[in-house]
Amino acid sequence: MSDTFFVQQLRQHGYKITPQRRAIIEALAEAPLAPKASEIWEKIRQKYPDISPDTVYRNLTLLVDLGMVQQIYLRSKETSRFEVNIPHHHHLVCLKCGCYYCLEGCLVNEQDLEAAKQRGFTVIGHALELYGYCLSCQEVREEGLR
Amino acid sequence: MSDTFFVQQLRQHGYKITPQRRAIIEALAEAPLAPKASEIWEKIRQKYPDISPDTVYRNLTLLVDLGMVQQIYLRSKETSRFEVNIPHHHHLVCLKCGCYYCLEGCLVNEQDLEAAKQRGFTVIGHALELYGYCLSCQEVREEGLR
DNA sequence: ATCCTAAATAAGTTTATTCTTATTTAGATT
DNA sequence: AATCTAAATAAGAATAAACTTATTTAGGAT
Questions:
Q1: How distant is the alpha carbon of residue B5 from its chain centre?
Q2: Which of B78, B1, B92, B4 is nearest to B37 (CA)?
Q3: Is the CB of A8 under 7 A from strand C?
Q4: What span, in angstroms and rounded, lies between the C-alpha atoms of A55 and A10?
Q5: CB-based contact, A103 to chain B, within 8 Å
Q6: Of A62, A116, A61, A134, the residue nearest B129 (C-alpha)
Q7: Ranges of each domain in chain A
Q8: pTM of the shown model
Q9: What is the rounded CA–CA span in Å between residue B113 and residue A107?
Q10: Residues 6 or more apart whose Cβ sits within 8 Å of residue A38
Q11: What is the pairing mode between strands A90-94 and A122-133?
């Protein structure tokens, strides 16, 4: 989870190590909790005022595809969040307020993934989010959904 | 899965039945495969030229939140697709070309969902997508990811 | 049949994200 | 150290999706 590890991983996969990539990795490592792409962008801009948002999005997606970062899809209200991916786990997402909780472990068993691989599909990763309503949004929901 | 069923469900939850909602439900029922929001919008515009895209998005989200429609997150490249939700299942999504395959059954067991409910969280549904590379994108991937 | 009110919509604005293209650069090769 | 080339970037345009607000309307009450 250190910067060095991320950089090593990128090198091993043949990607170039740019100042922008170092900055993104550094920002992710320093981030207290799963930040939004825009938060990472803002943080990096303090040091590198000219970095483009596209570069941030592109590299976050790359890190996700390489399995080093986990993307949490918060379904509307809020934008995605990015989490350093150790250990792999899933999330409970509130449809009303956009808050989320981490669940322990993985709810998908490897056996099921095999079925996918048999179709010639190379599975890189998976995303599972449970959607619903958090405790403090329950009442609101009862009004909203009658 | 008939229009009537969807309308009944909306009524039971206290939602009003508007011409726009009927049109969206009709369009979903007639769609040959999981359409994109924009495709549904275009189809409805043939009959109702003044319907706004916001109305389509809003109601698709509503149907998803009520568990009547399943949203497939295709991760970049392509936008989400919406599927009439019978039976519940998951998807294999190609990160390169955006194509997807349906998997049989649900890979998440109810027992695991209970853990979430114990936190006072009301689980409405869940979304699981397996991400990777389809057969015809494998070579491209080997170039791309070295 | 008319009225009432909260819900739903249209229109326009705003934001998040991706795409396109010209330029720059990391890292390999010489 | 200089050169080369594919990869990465910045900038700006394009798109998808959501928000804001004024107006309309579905469905219940009168």
A1: 18
A2: B78
A3: no
A4: 15
A5: yes
A6: A116
A7: 3-144
A8: 0.87
A9: 9
A10: A53, A79
A11: parallel
CA angle B64–B20–A98, rounded 5-degree value: 30
Taking only the tens of pLDDT, chain B with its 146 residues reads 445 899 999 999 999 999 999 999 999 998 878 899 999 999 999 889 999 999 999 999 999 988 889 998 887 678 899 998 678 888 888 888 888 888 887 877 777 777 777 778 888 888 888 888 888 887 554 444 43
Residue of chain A whose alpha carbon sits nearest to that of B58:
A76
Q: Are A140 and B111 in contact (CB under 8 A)?
A: no
What Å distances lie between residue A26 and A1, A19, A49, A126, B134, CA to CA? 11, 10, 16, 25, 33
Of B39, B7, B99, nearest to A121 (Cα)?
B99
Is the CB of residue B77 inside 7 Å of nucleic acid strand C?
A: yes
* Amino acid letter, A75: R
**Count of positions (residues) in chain B:** 146
Beta bridge partners of A92: A101, A130
HSE-up of residue B57 (Cα within 13 Å, Cβ side): 8
Fold observed for domain A3-144? Arc Repressor Mutant, subunit A (1.10.10)
Residue whose pair of structure tokens reads 């689980």 in the numeric block: B123
User: DSSP 3-state assignment of A54?
Assistant: helix
Q: How far is CA A71 from CA B37, B45, B88, B89, in A?
A: 23, 35, 23, 21
Which candidate from A121, A125, A128 shows the least CB-CB separation from B108? A128
Interface residue of B11, B54, B65 to substitute, partner A, most A CBs within 10 Å: B65
